[in-house]
Write a structure and sequence with these properties.
Distance between the termini: 55 Å
Shape: elongated
Number of helices: 4
Largest sheet: none
Helix content: over 70%
Structural class: mainly alpha
Radius of gyration: 24 Å
Order of helices and strands: HHHH
Number of domains: 2
Strand content: under 5%
Number of strands: 0
Length: 104
């Protein structure tokens, strides 16, 4: 087994579980089963809908990398972004800043 493979993050797992729970809750609500024990059915449907929409948006927006290739891609992207930020930081400093540091 190759131990160089990046691990699936806890955030990815948590977002996936929350999305699955929201979808199951939505299906149960649509089929007439009350998952959240609230007397008013309209409130139950509204809460279920809000939970499903929220979980869906978060799961869709975030980069949830499950496959080995996707996790390696995330790692490569992070390394690239780090190098780009380092280069930008170094290039943003003018030569005058370096000259004044050497004179001190």
């Amino acid at each position: 087994m190759n131990n160089d493979t990046p691990k699936i993050t806890g955030g990815t797992i948590a977002r996936t579980i929350i999305l699955a729970l929201a979808l199951v809750n939505q299906v149960l609500t649509v089929t007439g089963h009350s998952v959240i024990p609230i007397a008013d059915e309209e409130v139950n449907e509204l809460v279920s809908l809000i939970l499903t929409i929220g979980a869906s948006i978060v799961a869709w927006w975030k980069n949830n990398s499950f496959t080995k290739a996707a996790r390696f891609g995330d790692e490569a992207m992070d390394e690239y972004n780090f190098k780009e930020n380092l280069i930008d930081t170094l290039m943003s400093k003018s030569f005058d800043d370096y000259d004044s540091e050497e004179e001190d």
